[in-house]
What does this fold into?
Amino acid sequence: MLPVPELLPVPDLGPTAWVLIVLAGFAAGWVDAVVGGGGLIQLPALLLVPGLSPLNVLATNKLGSIMGTTTSAVTYQRRVHPDLRTALPMALAALLGAVGGAALAAQIPADLFRPIIVLACTAVLAWTIARPAAGLVTAHRFTGHRHRGLAVLLGVLIGTYDGVLGPGTGSFLVISLVGVLGYAFVPASAIAKIVNMATNAGALAFFIPAGHVVWGLGLAVGAANMLGGYIGARTAVARGSRFVRVVFLVVVSGLIARLVADIT
It folds into this structure.
C-alpha cells in the first residue's frame, strides 16, 4: 500500500488576505471559463502566500483550477453541447502530453521557453486582430479522421506545454480550435474547458501523491473558482462569440505583458 502523504497546514492568513485570494480565485474562474488564461490571476495571488514552496503553489493552483474547469465544462455541456468526438480524444492526448511535459519540466529550464511563447502569443494576437471575422461562426476546415487527428496533435502539443510551463494554456487551446480547426469562439471555449480539465488532472496525478497540495487553501480557492467558472460560462454563452473574442484579446495581451516582465 502506498503511504498517505501528510496534509500540509493552511497558512496563517489575515481576513484581508483571505478575501483577496478568494476574489482572485473567482476572477480566475470567470476569465478561464470565458476564454482561458485564469492562471494569470490565480497563480500570482498564490505566490504572495507566505511559506509556500513553488511546488506547493503550482499544486494548489491546479486543485483550484480543476474545480473551476470542471464546473465550467459541465455548464458549457448543458448549454452548448460541444462536440465530444473532438473534445474527448483531444483531452486524452492533452492529459498524456501534460504528464510527459511534467517529466520534462525538471530537465528543461523554463527560461528557454518564455521568449518562444512571447513570439507565439504575439503572432496569435496579430492574427486575431487582423481577422475580425475569425471565430464568429463555426466553419470546420477539415472533416472526419483528419479533423480528429489534428485535434489529437494539438492536444499533445498544448498538453506538453501545460506540463512544462503552463501560463495561457486555455488561451492556446481556444485559438488552436478557432484558427486551426475552424470553431467559433464559444464552442471552442467549451471544448477547451474539457481539455484543460484533463491537463489539470494529469498534473494533480503527480502533485497529490507527492504531498504538494495545500488542501485547505486549494479548496477555498477552488470554491471561488467554481462560482467564477459557472458565471463565466453562462456569460460567454449569453453574450456570444464576439464578446469572447474581445476578452480573448485582452487576456492574450495580459499574458504577453506578464511573460515579457518575467524575461526582463
User: Anything to note?
Assistant: DSSP finds ten helices and no strands in the chain.
